[in-house]
Amino acid sequence: MQNLKNLKSGSDIRGIALGENINLTNDAVKSIAMAFVKFLEKNKNIEIKNQTIAVGHDSRLSGERLRDIFINGLISAGANVYYCGLCSTPAMSMAPKMLSCSASVEITASHQPKEYNGFKFFDLGGGFTPGNIEEILNIASNEFYPKFSTQGTVRNIDFMKKYADILKNMIKKEFSEKLPLEGLKIVIDASNGAGGFFADILKKLGADTSGSSLLSPDGNFPVHAPNPEKIGPINYIKALVTENKADLGIIFDADVDRCFFIDENGEAFSKSKLIALVSKLVLKEHPGSVIVTDSVTSDNLKNFIEKNGGYQFRERRGYQNIISAAKYMNADEKICFLAIETSGHAAFEENNFKDDGAYLAAKIIIELAKLKKQNKKLSDEISDFQDAVETKEIRIPLENSEQIKKNLKNFQDNYKKILGCSLDKNTPEGVRLNFNLKDRKGWCLLRPSVHDMSLVLNIESDIYGGMEKILQDISVFDVDK
Predict the structure, then answer these.
(1) What is the overall mean pLDDT for the chain?
(2) For the whole model, what pTM was predicted?
C-alpha cells in the first residue's frame, strides 16, 4: 500500500488523478473512503451501520472515476450514501444538516489544473481540520479494511436545486419587488466548473445575465484554468464586463467556494479591496465587529476597517484557520461576523461560517441592487480605501520543513541590515518586515505555504517602483536549499 500522507493539502486531500504520475489511484481512493468510515466511527461516535454520507463532485474529468471508487469504498465498509451529483463545495458543506446525514464529501481540487483532484470533508460542525485529514490518511495508509456483513446502499438526490433555492430566497427576502434584480446587468464566468447554476438564479430574479460565459461544466477547462486569482481568468472576465457594459462581473473557481469581482468600470476588485468592501457591508449590519483576515493584508486595510467602526484580527493563511479563529472568538460572545481570506474565501456568521463563494456573491449583489436605487455604484463604497499600487507573490520550493525553518530564521536574524526596515512582531505566521522610506513604503511577508513544501514571499508597495527596491533589499538573504 502506498504512503498516502503526502496527499494532505492543508484541510483537504489533493493529488494527481489524470496522466502519467497519478497518486490518487483506485486503491488509494478506496482506502481513503474506508478510512473515512472508520474515522467517523472512532472520532464522531457514529456506528458504521448508522452512517449515511453525502457525496458530490465538481466538473473534473477524473470526477466520475473517483466518485465510483469512493462510493464503492463507503458502501463496502457498510455505510450508506446519498449521491448528489454535480455540486458545489458550499452546497455539500450544508448537506449534513439539510439531509440529516452523518457527513459529506466534495470531490474537487478547487482551482488546481485539470489533472488534479481530491476530497473535502464536512460534518455538522463544518469543514474538517488539517489534523482530521492527517488522521484519515494515517488510517488509510495502515490498510484499514472494515469487515462488515451488509453492504451499504446508494440513493440519488438532486441536492443542488435545494441549495440554489436557499440563495434565491435569500436575495428575494431583501426586496418587495417580484424581480428585485431587474435593471441590473451581471455577467458570470463559472470557469466551466459547478457554478453555472448561479447565472440561472440571477436571471430568474430579473437580472440580465446575457454575456455570461463558461457556464457549462467541462473538466478540460478549455478557455482558462478555474483559478480566479490568476491574471488570465481575471482578464477574461474583465473583457466580458467591458464588452457587455455590465454593472458587475463575477468569476468562480471550479467548486464555487470562492470568487472575485469586476466593477462597472471593468476593474478587478483587488484582494484587499474586496475585503474592504465586504467588511464595510458587514459593519453596516454589525457595528464594532471583529473582521478576521489572513496574514497577507496591509495596514491600509486595518485602518479602513477601524475607520468604519470595526477591528481587524490577522490569522494564519488558510481558510479553515480564519474560520476557526472566528468561531473561537464567538464561543462565549458574538463579536465576529466575518472571516475572509485574501484568496477570495469568505464566511459569514449569519451563514454559520460556511465557506461559500456563491453566498458572498449574493450578499454583494443585494448591496449592488440597493445602491442602484440610490444611483450609486459598488466602487463608491470604497472610494476612500487606499490600496497598494504594487503587489507580488513569489513561491520558493524547498525540500523539507527543516529548510523552511532555517530560512525563516535567517530572514528574521538579518533584517536589521536593511535601512528603514522594521520587524512586525504581531504577524501570526512567518516573518513580516515593514518599510517606511520615501522611495519604499510597504511591507513583505515570508511564510510557509499552506499546501506544499515551499516558502511564499508576499510584497506590497504604496509607491510605484517601491516593490523592486524592497526585492533588492531582501535579496541579500539568499535562500539556502
Answers:
(1) 93
(2) 0.93
